[in-house]
Amino acid sequence: MSDADIPVRVVVVDDHPVVRAGILAVLADFPDIDVVAEATDGAAALEEVARHRPDVVLMDLKMPTMDGFRATARITSRHPGIAVLVLTMYDDDAAIFAALRAGARGYLLKEAAGEEVRRTVLAVARGEALFSAGIAQRVLAFFTTMPAHHPQLSPFPHLTDREREILHLLATGQNNAAIAQRLFLSPKTVRNRVSDILIKLSARSRAEAVALARDAGLGEQAEIQAQDIDTP
């Protein structure tokens, strides 16, 4: 059997059972695609990817426990040979560019026809980057007209600008008091904002939130001293 005859191995990640079942039914019609596992959130996706080492992960974005942005970043970091293809209902620029920053190799909307999904899965498995027509036009227009540091490229689009600013300062090793002084906020306000950030990132601790921020390029790479890691 030649490589061309070997089906592309896929893990499907979506938290909605009906939607996931529909995706599985569509992919089952294509003999050149083999769904080896399914997952209901990003955390489960990491386990299935480590277990099966698929060629492609078909990834939803907005999910509980761990969202698709974080899962994509971790998969592409740990398994650079595995392609992540986003399949989502969200077509806003913040979601698109956050997914690309996380390492997604393709971006499709859930309204895509089955043949388009198949074609894109096969393309990203070959190392190509492919997007649905409307998304591709916006990506091209963005990178030909916008400055490199446009805010749409910011990670964690589900955080507010203030929360992202605080997360950046956390990643540089600053404690609550220093952040409060820097941003002219009360320590209580900073403490509450940090708690909100941990919830939105599904981070179990301040240190884990800092690690996620640094993985996304926020903050500095210097290690945080133990005395700087206080309770939010």
From TrEMBL:
Keywords: DNA-binding, Phosphoprotein, Transcription, Transcription regulation. Pfam families: GerE (PF00196), Response_reg (PF00072). This is Response regulator transcription factor. The keyword Protein biosynthesis does not apply. It comes from the Bacteria. Residues 152-217 form the HTH luxR-type domain. The keyword Signal does not apply. Transmembrane segments: none annotated. The lineage of its organism: Bacteria, Bacillati, Actinomycetota, Actinomycetes, Streptosporangiales. The modification 4-aspartylphosphate is found at residue 60. Residues 9-125 form the Response regulatory domain. InterPro entries: CheY-like_superfamily (IPR011006), NreC/VraR/RcsB-like_REC (IPR058245), Sig_transdc_resp-reg_C-effctor (IPR016032), Sig_transdc_resp-reg_receiver (IPR001789), Tscrpt_reg_LuxR_C (IPR000792), WalR-like (IPR039420). SUPFAM superfamilies: C-terminal effector domain of the bipartite response regulators (SSF46894), CheY-like (SSF52172).
